[in-house]
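retry 2 of 3: previous attempt timed out while embedding magnesium ion. Reduced batch size to 1 and resubmitted. Inputs unchanged:
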Amino acid sequence: MNSLRLHWVQIPLHEPFRIANGSVGVKDAIVVEFTRDGITGWGEASPMAGSFYSEETPESTWDALLHMAPAVMRNPDADLDTLIAGEAFAKAGLTGALVDCHVRGLGMPLYEWLGSSFRAVPSGAAIGLYDTVEELLERVGRLVADGYQRVKIKIKPGWDVTPVARIREKYPDLPLMVDANAAYSLADLEVFRELDRFGLMMYEQPFARNDLAGLAELSRSVRTPVCADESADSLEMLEEIIRLGAARIINIKIQRVGGIRKARRMYQRATEAGLPCWIGTMPELGIASLEALHLATLPNCVYPTDVEASERWYVDDVVDPPLGLAAGGNLEPRACVVNPEKLARYRIQHEEIR
Ligand SMILES: [Mg+2]
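retry 2 succeeded.
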């Protein structure tokens, strides 16, 4: 007999995460537990609270999962896009659980099902906005000491060239990149021309999601590669990015594109177009982070992932053991083991569909 359980959990962050358009202090996630013929698969739908990165919220994602659940119970192979429009996070959580159940039934690791093979994945640390450069430098120092293989800082108008210059002064060889979360436009071209001298790995999403023409113009005007993040939210947008030359690197996020199957297809298309990839995060708890690590083993994922150790942001995690950095600043893909006691401890809402 099939069953589907939804567990809405909230895990506090060590410190609030700040980007150009807001701040959050608790991590919401909806854990999807799907059991078929005695085999249980786990997925995670992981929107941030308050439309932080996306239109989707934990509330809308919860409702979308409840909406799709009966049809999925009748037919686990149903095309989720025919059940509800949008709701990428809910689809990512549901697809994650269905695929996990499927690969467990085959006795196959997820990376193998994806057509990849085992490897450790270099982990990069992402740093939010700070009030002072001193605080930022202190944080960079700590993360470099922890072993992260690159550092990404968030930038916004008024917080860009100076923090980058100060980090470079102290860490001339650190693999470093900036993420603007769409906070600039082509009118700010001069900022990116100035940043060009710091040897950054990439400029992540400098302009608005739909400003592909602007991104293409920027790409042609600077040496540092432009990376599409918010823009790369579907296969259709990826086609436009390729057609216009709007980015030279693609950040693939399983949650944003609506699940592991779509993420795999986008990886394939980007690879065919000669665009190197890496796997980003929203960020997620351990279930979705492990799924991301399996995807990140694919050979054209050539930049460090944004997946970090569990303790980087969260006071706890629902997986056993929590994700930890291995030697050399790597994370390793493994099967997901959910801790039922922790699931119960952090749960704020629960629903079972039979
Ligand atoms: Mg980003």
